[in-house]
Design a protein that fits this description.
With 334 residues, the chain is of the alpha/beta class. It folds into two domains: 8-65; 107-303, 3-Layer(aba) Sandwich (Rossmann fold), CATH 3.40.50.1110. Helices cover 39% and strands 8% of the residues. The chain is built from ten helices and seven strands. It has a five-stranded parallel β-sheet, with helices on both faces.
C-alpha cells in the first residue's frame, strides 16, 4: 500500500468516527429532552405555564390526573364552608318587627288560646271557622277599662278581662283592641294603658305567648254612610295606634302581628266588599284573618330561650292585680 492510499483510509476512518460521535450526541440530546419533558409533567406543583408550553411542543395536553392540588386548595369532595344545617341558629327574636310568615299551623294550635277583643274579634270567632279557643270579647271593650270594667259574664258571674284570664291557663293570648279608643284622641294614655295591660296579663299568664294584633283598617266611606262617622274614626289615627302598639310590643317583648298590611288597599283603607259597615268584617274576611294567624306564629322558647324576662318564678300564675291606669277613659260604641 502506498503512502497516499494509507492516508486516504485513515481519513475515512476519522470521518466515520466523527459521524458516529455526532449521532451519539444527537440521540443523547433527544433522550434528555424526553426525560426532561416527562419529569416536568409529573412533578407536584409544576408551574402551569411551563407545563402548557411543553404540552404544546409534544402535541399533548398536561396530564391533570398526575397533578397534586396546590397548597390551600380544599379537596374536591370537601366544601369550602360547613353545611348550612350545621351552623347553630341562635339568633334572638327581633321584637321590633312583626312576626314573619311561616308554615301554616292547623286550628288545633289555638286550642289553648284566649282571644281578647271587642265586637270585631267576636265576629272573627263566629265566622272564621276557627272552632276552638276561648272567646273573651265584649262589645265596646276598651284598653282604658280593661282592669276595672266587669265586661265578661262567665258561669253567671261578671268578671273584668284580667279576672277572666286568670280563671284558666293559656298558651297564647291574642289581643285586638283599639277601635273603640280611636275617637278619644288620647295617644299617650292609649300607649300607657297598653303597657300596663301587658304587665298584668303576663302576671296571670306567664307561660303564654302574647300576640298584639295590629288594627285592620277601616272603610271611612262606608262608616260615613252607615252612621255618619259620629265618632270620627279615621285610618290616619288608626295607623298612629298601630305604631304605638308596635312600640309596646318592642318595649314589653311581646309579639306584634301586622294585620293592617294584610287588609289595606292601595289607599291604606279597608277595600269595598270586606265590611258591611266599614268596621266589622264579612265571613270571607274573617277566614282571611284566620289564615293570616295560622301562618304567623312563634313558639315561647324562641321568644324567651332563657326564660321570661323579669320573671321571678316563671311558670307560676298569680292573682290578677288592678293596674293603676291614670288616663282619660271612655269608649265609642260599635
Amino acid at each position: 500500500m502506498t503512502n497516499y492510499q494509507g492516508k486516504h483510509v485513515a481519513r475515512k476512518r476519522w470521518v466515520a468516527v466523527l459521524l458516529i460521535s455526532v449521532a451519539v450526541v444527537v440521540i443523547a440530546a433527544v433522550a434528555a429532552v424526553l426525560v426532561y419533558q416527562r419529569y416536568w409533567n409529573t412533578v407536584p406543583g409544576a408551574p402551569d405555564v411551563l407545563q402548557g408550553e411543553m404540552s404544546a411542543g409534544s402535541g399533548a395536553g398536561p396530564d391533570l390526573s398526575q397533578q397534586t392540588p396546590p397548597e390551600n386548595t380544599p379537596p374536591e369532595n370537601q366544601p369550602d364552608d360547613p353545611p348550612e344545617d350545621s351552623v347553630p341558629e341562635d339568633v334572638p327574636y327581633d321584637f321590633s318587627q312583626p312576626v314573619p310568615q311561616g308554615e301554616a299551623v292547623d286550628n288545633s294550635y289555638f286550642d289553648d288560646a284566649a282571644f281578647v277583643g271587642d265586637s270585631r274579634t267576636d265576629g272573627f270567632m263566629i265566622y272564621s271557622g276557627i272552632g276552638t279557643g276561648r272567646n273573651l270579647t265584649s262589645n265596646g271593650l276598651s284598653i282604658f277599662k280593661l282592669a276595672e270594667k266587669k265586661a265578661l259574664k262567665i258561669g253567671g258571674k261578671q268578671y273584668t278581662l284580667l279576672e277572666a284570664l286568670a280563671l284558666e291557663e293559656y298558651g297564647k293570648v291574642y289581643l285586638s283592641l283599639g277601635i273603640n279608643e280611636l275617637g278619644i284622641h288620647n295617644d299617650k294614655g292609649f300607649y300607657n294603658s297598653y303597657c300596663s295591660a301587658i304587665d298584668e296579663i303576663r302576671k296571670v299568664q306567664p307561660n303564654a305567648v302574647i300576640y298584639i294584633q295590629g288594627l285592620i283598617p277601616l272603610n271611612e266611606k262606608q262608616i260615613e254612610e252607615y252612621n255618619g262617622n259620629k265618632y270620627n274614626l279615621t285610618n290616619e289615627h288608626l295607623r298612629v295606634y298601630n305604631d304605638l302598639m308596635r312600640k309596646v310590643a318592642e318595649e314589653k317583648q311581646v309579639v306584634y302581628l301586622d294585620l293592617y298590611t294584610e287588609f289595606a288597599d292601595e289607599n291604606g283603607a279597608l277595600p269595598e266588599g270586606v265590611s258591611r259597615d266599614g268596621v266589622h268584617l264579612v265571613k270571607d274576611a274573617c277566614v282571611q284573618w284566620l289564615d293570616y294567624l295560622k301562618t304567623h306564629t312563634v313558639e315561647f322558647d324562641k321568644l324567651y330561650p332563657e326564660g321570661l324576662p323579669g320573671a321571678e318564678e316563671p311558670g307560676e300564675a298569680v292573682e290578677p292585680g288592678q293596674p293603676d291606669i291614670s288616663t282619660e277613659d271612655g269608649s265609642a260604641q260599635e
